[in-house]
Write a structure and sequence with these properties.
The protein is an alpha+beta fold and 184 residues long. It folds into two domains: 82 residues, Glutaredoxin (3-Layer(aba) Sandwich); 85 residues, Glutaredoxin (3-Layer(aba) Sandwich). Helix 6 crosses helix 8. InterPro entries: Glutaredoxin, GRX_PICOT-like, Monothiol_GRX-rel, Thioredoxin-like_sf. One of its GO terms (cellular component) is nucleus.
């Protein structure tokens, strides 16, 4: 669902126009709502989403973001997969791209605190991974790990997905915190 200024055929601002063009270019089927048609929705959605500007793109009831977020996803080669709900990602026509995206999202959200590293909790396979394990173990926080050395698709895909080129990568509640330097 795209909350925008105007309608797809007649956008009433440049940002809404660009958003519609991106969605159409990628063949994304979407509905829209002209926020100028209802002031209560226009103001209420800003509070609801904690996002002050329009357009706002929602997928499966969750705010994806505005034009800057969507443009960033396209530039990061997430393209169409970024816009589709998990069910469509898992059963889409281009299953290779969609399954990869779906799998990464699932792995990142496997546990509230998820560490992608070289090795596992019992045995780190690089100095950076060993250091981050020591930090996490000293905090007493429950966490899960994923050994990126055992799955090249995840190892390479997560770099693009997160725009973070190195490992380890720590995620909390599905959001990238960063690597060892950030955690330190």
């Amino acid at each position: 669902m795209l909350f925008m200024k105007g309608f797809p055929k007649e956008p009433r601002c440049g940002f809404s126009k660009q958003m519609v063009e991106i969605l159409q270019r990628h063949g994304v089927a979407f509905s829209s709502f002209d926020i100028f048609s209802d002031e209560e929705v226009r103001q209420g959605l800003k509070s609801f989403s904690n996002w002050p500007t329009y357009p706002q793109l929602y997928v499966a009831g969750e705010l994806i973001g505005g034009l800057d977020i969507v443009k960033g996803a396209v530039l990061a080669d997430l393209s169409i997969s970024f816009f589709l709900p998990t069910s469509a990602l898992c059963w889409g026509d281009n299953q290779g791209i969609f399954l990869s995206f779906c799998r990464l999202k699932s792995l990142i959200n496997k546990a509230p605190v998820m560490l992608f590293m070289k090795g596992n909790k019992q045995m780190a396979k690089c100095g950076f991974s060993k250091q981050i394990l020591e930090i996490l173990n000293n905090t007493g926080v429950d966490y899960e790990t994923f050994d990126i050395l055992e799955d090249e698709e995840v190892r390479q895909g997560l770099k693009s997905f997160s725009s973070w080129p190195t490992y380890p990568q720590l995620y909390v509640k599905g959001e990238l915190v960063g690597g060892l330097d950030i955690v330190k």
